[in-house]
């Protein structure tokens, strides 16, 4: 699976980040935008990030395989966690992308079924579930 395929799977899901740039770098970006190479600052920055990810795609693939990460989007529903609880099993969540715990999952159910969480990307859950799992999020 390529990094490009991951972006296609992720669809419209995105997270906002903030970066600090020196004024000279920012000026050079604005010059490239003004000259028509990019439509705006975000376009240039997004393109630069994608180029770097493509350059390192093999390292990402190898690391994902070695560390057994789920690549892309992973959603855990209340029914999923209730089934794990009934089976006496627990999750070790490892996701590169987006991990989501459904909003109807109680903090008690999350604590009973999730041993650890490692997410490289974004983790969405209710504030109560995040608080309950705080010591298990790495």
TrEMBL record:
Cross-referenced SUPFAM superfamilies, in alphabetical order? Answer: Ribbon-helix-helix
Q: Which domain of life is it from?
A: Bacteria
Q: Which InterPro entries match?
A: Arc_rbn_hlx_hlx, RHH_8, Ribbon_hlx_hlx
Q: Gene3D superfamilies this protein is in? A: Met repressor-like
Instruction: Please name the CDD domains in this protein's record.
Output: RHH_NikR_HicB-like
For this protein, the record's PANTHER family field holds: BLL4998 PROTEIN
What protein am I looking at?
Answer: CopG family transcriptional regulator
Report the source organism.
Aromatoleum toluolicum
